[in-house]
Write the structure tokens for this entry.
Amino acid sequence: MKLLRPVLLNVFTWSLVFLIAFPLVWMIVTSLKPQSELFRIPPTWIPESVTFEHYWRLLSETPFLRYFRNSVVLATTTTLFVVALGTLGAYSLVRFTYRGRETLALLVLFTYLLPSVVLIIPLYLMMVTLGLSNTLFSLILAHTTFALPYALWLLRSFMEGIPEDLENAALVDGATRIGAFRDVIFPQLLPGIISTALFTFILSWNEYLYALVLVNSDAVAPLTTGVMSMLISAFNIEWSLLMAASVMMSLPLIVVFAFLQSYLTSGFGAGGVKG
Amino acid sequence: MANVIFKDVHKSFGSFVALEKLDLDIRDGEFVALLGPSGCGKSTTLRMLAGLDFPTSGEISIGGRVVNDLAPGKRDIAMVFQSYALYPHMTVGENIGYPLKKRGIKGAARAEAVQKAADLLQLGALLDRKPKQLSGGQQQRVALGRALVREPQVFLLDEPLSNLDAKLRSYMRAELIELHRRLGKTMVYVTHDQLEAMTMASRIAVMHGGHVQQFDTPDAIYNRPANRFVAGFIGTPPMNQVEGTVEGGDFVIAGHRVPIDRTAYSADLHDGPAVLGVRPEAISIGSGEGLPATVRLAENTGHETIVTLELPDKRRISARVEAARRLDVGQPVALRLDPAAIHLFEATENGARLNLDDTPASVIPMRST
């Protein structure tokens, strides 16, 4: 009995890992197989010959790089918007007392509860009225609207963890409110800002529905819709190109995550206030 | 000149009145303690002086300059927070140097000032550490260093010792007294600990319910409390307060007469209900003549014994006797009260003291534990 428990636990865990990892592994494997090997039965687990031709074709013969650039601009700008607005909003919600503060915070969260499908048509009409339809900026605005509420709440809880006395001390020491924010609040908030930025970036990078509805020009399409329309048609799916594209789409996220994760954890637990 | 004046200051948060008609005149170089239970308005008073809160009405001035609308950084004050509020991402040196940095003092001049403050507080070896690598006492000293590096006009201290353990607290208390003597700057010190206020302050403002109850020297606060609140707040154990009636030359407690000297009290003292106040050390326990009582509890602290006594009508009072004195629980005794140490108060909830204040303060030796 004593021996059985860890064994069962291990079996369970590893099957879970396998279940999650398999599509990823298969994606990479498929992207490296030559066309001839793709549909062989039984399938080959390890490609008999490894080829990078799909990657080469993707980069040289398709507008993949343009989509990629669009996605980078889209996700980065959205993240900047959301972090800037979210930080200032959270600061206001935590530090200032005014009428309807809590209601405002709840209302913001409420918009987050609505399914995006409900908002997409009004948003589209608004973009048309504003003359922004079919621009990258319309997507940036749309992504900001759905990422901001959650970001605001996330940052608010981080902000609440920063003792007010720290800011008061800076004010007494001669800093202006902005100065106190820059010198004292911001460094304390950095882990929160980074996790919020990460969350927003991933959300915006992977978003499909808004991009599909708000943008139908190939010139401003991000990766998600661009790759789909390019490689998937009613008659044919370019599997090897699709898998190569998927691998390259995942790379930036993996890099960003790997780079920031150590920073995320190192920020926590540092405290100068006792009690 | 850095005197601090609160003139007719009111402060309310919505419908809650935190401070009402606050008048304080703190002299240049004085060490004033704002003492009171939590919620009495002492921290609000300090925060308003710092510029972190604003009075609803009234005027606050520092060194003759009205500061009502002045930003905290422009008031030439420094503050030590209860939580120390050290900047966690800065080193000790950067923490201490921050107020100078904000005033545009650069390079060698700043480094020199930081070094001087650090040396004064024996922090010289710790300048490169981060606050979380320091002990509570060291963090406390860094907070002090950050306050004094700029040589401000007024120091504000908000319960700075309450996060320290007892031993360190008594050490830092002595350090602060020494520091005040050396700097000669005005200090305003908020505390709920009467021992800190009594030992450190040149004057104490006892606060309660948004009002200053008494603003006086520790000696006067102890020996001539202005009202029942102050009498009951200061002293461990506090002053006994027994309700009774004044009848001619006597104060009657549960049918027993305690002689009083009517000439020692103001003309406001009339026959009728009043409250008698007497410090535990002014009660002598004997037998025979006197107010009858029964010993209920004797607590020996080593250098003295605190005795809880029950009067005939079941009310309890405490007395302080020498440690060697043997008293048994249940033992009947007779109490004699030193007539010169009897305070009489109006029989209202926070009745004013009715003694004429020519009572020499030295009649009752001041004790603190």
